[in-house]
Design a protein that fits this description.
The chain is α+β, with helices and mostly antiparallel strands. About 25% of the residues lie in helices and about 30% in strands. It is built from eleven helices and 25 strands. The strands form five sheets. Strands 2, 5, 7, 9, 10, 11, 12, 13 and 15 form a nine-stranded antiparallel sheet that branches. Helix 7 packs antiparallel against helix 8. It is elongated and about 70 Å long. The two termini are about 30 Å apart. This is Mannose-6-phosphate isomerase. It comes from Gopherus evgoodei. Belongs to the mannose-6-phosphate isomerase type 1 family. Its cofactor is Zn(2+).
């Protein structure tokens, strides 16, 4: 029997409390359409679909001719499937974790350490930092998607310090004036002043910031009730986050961080030490395979304030600089590449128009994971033996240097996402 190197996967769903509920969730919809026997609970959150080999969500192989039960076990026994460069560079491990997220309430404001810091944190505090890897991430919007990412331009932060007295009281006049004066300074002076202000906020005593936050929320609520414009204080976002995390320091972080709105197909890349939070919407996410997160707010979990304030990238930049569009492949007009500035992963969006009935998913020198978002097809491959029925929610593992032919049966084409590692 020929070796099976392309096969379908059943992937793990994480039901974190912040996920969208029931069939409002893109994760739940994908699960329901891929598995007719799946029971979707209308009252439960469906937050994340994990496609990969992470120990907390190793994908199950849906081909009983394969003796290994999970993708992680199979790759450990067949490391050549990764492709020669990937196998060598990442020590025989699949270097990425591919996900779908459905966000209903905000995730914690967080940052991920670079490789050097991850190694130190893991050695010192393994209970909080479970591995020694970095965790760059990329989010690609499936629906209109709201997030926070990176420090705002200083002019915007200064405007909030002047417009929001409760915010200024929390930072203190000395630090606020230092930031105001730094606007004309060199970038290092700006970063230093920004670090002082953010650290003052993060280290403020709980009673102090809760009192200021309550005063702010009361004032904004009264202004909203009176029909006033609260955009100068980001009133709408403040009330949204306060309703989800009352009394949380993260509610003040909106005055430091860019609000980023992604339209479907747009993406943002979150490099090491970049503060960020997802607020609402559905997205594809790809990341290096790590669980290292340093949290800053909007969370009941452990907040490591010292590490966070030390590690952050205090470079202000406009929100538009955080959004990046894919580039169309020169080899295949159906393929759009999201290629971030890290070696661990690349994501391809494959849009097949209805006029095409036979499409070849080309071989690349990397293992890849393919997710069907729209459309139906029968997939064939010399490395799969039997035909594979692909529909919305289907997930396929494709070994390096293997191709898959899609015989489309849907009238409106197909939309697929493929995660891989292009070294």
């Amino acid at each position: 029997m020929a070796e099976l190197r392309v096969f379908p996967l059943s992937c793990v769903v994480q039901k974190y409390a912040w996920g969208k509920i029931g069939l409002d969730s893109e994760v739940a919809k994908l699960l329901a359409s891929s598995d007719p026997l799946a029971q979707i609970d209308p009252d439960k959150p469906y937050a994340e679909l994990w496609m990969g080999t992470h120990p907390r969500g190793d994908a199950v192989i849906l081909d009983n001719r394969i003796p290994q039960k999970t993708l992680g076990q199979w790759i450990a026994d067949n490391p050549g499937c990764l492709g020669s460069k990937v196998k060598e560079t990442f020590q025989g491990q699949l270097p990425f974790l591919f996900k779908v997220l459905s966000v209903n309430t905000a995730l914690s404001i967080q940052a991920h350490p670079n490789k050097e810091l991850a190694g130190k944190l893991h050695a010192q505090f393994p209970e909080h930092y479970p591995d020694a890897n970095h965790k760059p991430e990329m989010a690609i919007a499936l629906t209109p998607f709201q997030g926070m990412c990176g420090f705002r331009p200083v002019e915007e932060i200064v405007a909030f310090l002047q417009e929001v007295p409760e915010f200024r009281a929390l930072i203190g006049n000395v630090a606020a004036e230092q930031l105001e004066r730094s606007v004309c300074n060199d970038p290092r002076g700006v970063s230093a002043a920004l670090r002082v202000c953010f650290t003052r906020m993060m280290k403020s005593e709980k009673k102090v910031f809760v009192d200021q936050l309550n005063m702010l929320v009361k004032r904004i609520s009264q202004e909203v009730a009176a029909g006033k414009d609260t955009s100068g204080s980001s009133g709408k976002l403040l009330l949204q986050l306060h309703s989800q995390f009352p009394g949380d320091i993260g509610c003040f972080a909106i005055y430091f961080l860019n609000l980023v709105m992604l339209q479907p197909g747009e993406s943002m890349f979150l490099g090491a030490n970049e503060p960020h939070a997802y607020l609402y919407g559905d997205c594809i996410e790809c990341m290096a395979c790590s669980d290292n997160t340093v949290r800053a707010g909007l969370t009941p979990k452990f907040i490591d304030v010292l590490t966070l304030c030390e590690m952050l990238n205090y470079t202000p930049a406009p929100s538009s600089s955080k959004v990046f569009a894919p580039t169309q492949s020169r080899l295949d007009p159906c393929v759009y590449l999201y290629d971030p500035p890290v070696p661990d992963f690349t994501v391809m969006k494959i849009e097949i128009p209805s006029s095409i009935k036979l499409y070849l998913i080309s071989a690349i020198d990397s293992a890849s994971i393919l997710l069907v978002l729209q459309g139906t097809a029968v997939g064939t491959s010399t490395a799969a033996i039997s035909e594979m029925t692909l529909r919305r929610g289907s997930v396929l593992f494709i070994s390096a240097n293997e191709s898959v032919s899609l015989h489309l049966s849907s009238l409106d084409g197909m939309l697929l996402f493929r995660a891989c590692c292009l070294l």
